[in-house]
Design goal:
Helix 5 packs across helix 7 and helix 5 packs across helix 8. By secondary structure, the chain is an alpha/beta fold. The protein has 2 domains: 129 residues, 3-Layer(aba) Sandwich (Rossmann fold); 61 residues, Orthogonal Bundle (Arc Repressor Mutant, subunit A). The two termini are 24 Å apart. One of its GO terms (biological process) is regulation of DNA-templated transcription. It comes from Aeromicrobium chenweiae.
Length: 219
């Protein structure tokens, strides 16, 4: 259990470098409380940390593989979807915390501190589901894509079909189709093949990078 005066040491786990780096920057104003030790894409954790914060963005790896690579005392899932079936599935593998992506950075820091002290459960947000402010970064944000449109496009780029995407994102097939239509319109394509080519050209394939957190190298 972490002492209340000791910063919580976390790693951030996702397959996209822009996602983990953006989330790490969200914690910079709270570095006296949350110490980001590693940001990890597709590689095992080198240092043991208090919490591995697993970002759900375009996550296609097996749960066991993700958790085995995250070298942590506790595991926390960070997602747009906090549906009971998702929570039940990840809980069976030892994940004890589930945090809503609509939480502000300060709310996220508060929740991680409580989890590090031994609490568990689900922390959701009252913010509207369309709000993208203060949610870090994701591929395609600079092209006007919302976080969820980008996630669907990333999964398309990885070769998943609509049913698989709905399953991975815990959304309905109609929601997936809506996100596809709006994403296609924003990036100016009219077919899945062209969407994949656009995604490959614009960083929508998973990265394979292991890096220290932004400030860790100088600490």
């Amino acid at each position: 259990m972490v002492n209340s005066k000791t910063p919580v040491r976390i790693s951030i786990v996702n397959d996209y470098d822009v996602v983990v780096q953006g989330l790490a920057r969200m914690f910079e104003p709270f570095k006296d409380r949350i110490q980001v030790v590693e940001v990890s894409t597709n590689q095992p954790g080198r240092e043991r940390v208090d919490i591995a914060l697993i970002d759900s963005f375009a996550q296609t790896r097996d749960i066991n593989e993700v958790l085995a690579a995250a070298n942590a005392e506790r595991y926390v899932f960070y997602s747009w979807s906090l549906k009971p079936e998702l929570i039940e599935t990840w809980s069976q593998f030892g994940v004890i915390g589930f945090l809503d992506k609509r939480l502000t950075a300060e709310e996220l820091a508060d929740a991680l501190e409580r989890i590090a002290r031994g609490e568990s459960g689900v922390v959701s947000s009252d913010y509207p589901s369309s709000a993208d402010a203060d949610l870090g970064e994701w591929p395609g944000r600079e092209h006007g894509l919302s976080a969820r449109e980008s996630e669907v496009l990333a999964l398309i780029t990885q070769g998943l079909g609509n049913e698989e995407i709905a399953s991975r994102t815990f959304t309905s097939i109609n929601t997936v189709k809506t996100n596809i239509r709006t994403a296609y319109r924003k990036i100016g394509v009219d077919s899945r093949t062209r969407a994949v080519l656009w995604g490959v050209d614009h960083g929508f394939r998973p990265d394979i990078i292991k890096a220290a957190a932004p400030d860790a190298a100088s600490d």
